[in-house]
Design a protein that fits this description.
Blueprint (H helix, E strand, L loop, with lengths): L25 H11 L7 H17 L6 E7 L5 H15 L5 E7 L7 H9 L3 E8 L10 E6 L6 E4 L14 E5 L2 H6 L6 E6 L14 H28 L2
Parallel strand pairs: 1-2, 1-6, 6-7
Antiparallel strand pairs: 3-4, 4-5
Helix pairs in contact: 2-6, 3-4, 3-6, 4-6
């Protein structure tokens, strides 16, 4: 498991350009700036989750000790994958050196190629390692990828898996339930110290349709905007502590 551990960066007294932000690929930084200033607001159904997540981060974040968040959806192929990537980029953007986002599902399938395209579109480097994880329920291949959003430690390993798989945190993590189906079928998330529901519409509904690409990009940005605004709140509250 690859960790982001730059514990020398403290939140108190941060400048407007945190050290971690200079390590993010410029195209990703530009995209994060763009969606944070595009005038689109956080959906009303996500407001409570944003407040709750920011509160938990403020209470539990300690530089030098990883605070882990797992995004959980059913097949761990679309929303949870894009959300973990955007969450990690947003964490670096706001200078959270020891906040780490992971993804998981209630079943394993595969990192969907449309999700990969949407992330590559804004500058993520996603490269197959050559390793194969456990196949999906229909026997589909489940490749393992390096997901890279910047220099040095701004990278991780990603593939479709159950949220309790060995490469994800096993205890004391925050579980973000990003789909209604996973939320309903998984009332208790084993090992989580906090469970927060924040459902996003599944872009799978548009697979094979003319608007497929735009809908995946839209969902990527919806989740990214949620992450950026939540971490902005947490950062300001931590600075005032």
């Amino acid at each position: 498991m690859i960790l982001v551990l730059l514990s020398g960066l403290l939140l108190s007294g941060q400048k407007d350009q945190p050290e971690l932000q200079t390590m993010i690929f410029p195209s990703i930084t530009n995209h994060l700036k763009s969606i944070s200033k595009d005038g689109k607001s956080i959906a009303a159904i996500h407001e409570e989750a944003r407040k709750e997540l920011a509160k938990v981060i403020v209470e539990q974040y300690q530089p030098g000790r990883e605070l882990s968040i797992i995004l959980v959806c059913t097949g761990n192929s679309r929303r949870s994958m894009m959300g973990a990537a955007m969450g990690n980029a947003a964490a670096a953007y706001h200078g959270f050196s020891d906040l780490r986002f992971y993804s998981g599902g209630t079943i394993a399938s595969a990192f969907n190629s449309r999700s990969i395209r949407a992330l590559k579109e804004v500058g993520f480097k996603i490269e197959p390692t050559g390793e194969k994880a456990t196949p999906g329920p229909k026997g589909e291949e489940n490749p393992v990828y390096n997901v890279i959003w910047g220099q040095k430690t701004l990278r991780g390993i990603e593939f479709s898996k159950h949220y309790s798989a060995p490469r994800t945190p096993q205890k004391d993590f925050i579980a973000l339930m990003v789909c209604d189906e996973a939320d309903g079928s998984c009332p208790a998330v084993m090992g989580a110290k906090k469970r927060i529901t924040v459902p996003f519409a599944d872009p799978k509904a548009f697979d094979g349709k003319p608007e497929e690409s735009s809908k995946y990009s839209e969902r990527r940005d919806d989740i990214g905007r949620f992450m950026l605004s939540t971490l902005a709140i947490a950062r300001e509250q931590l600075k005032s502590k």
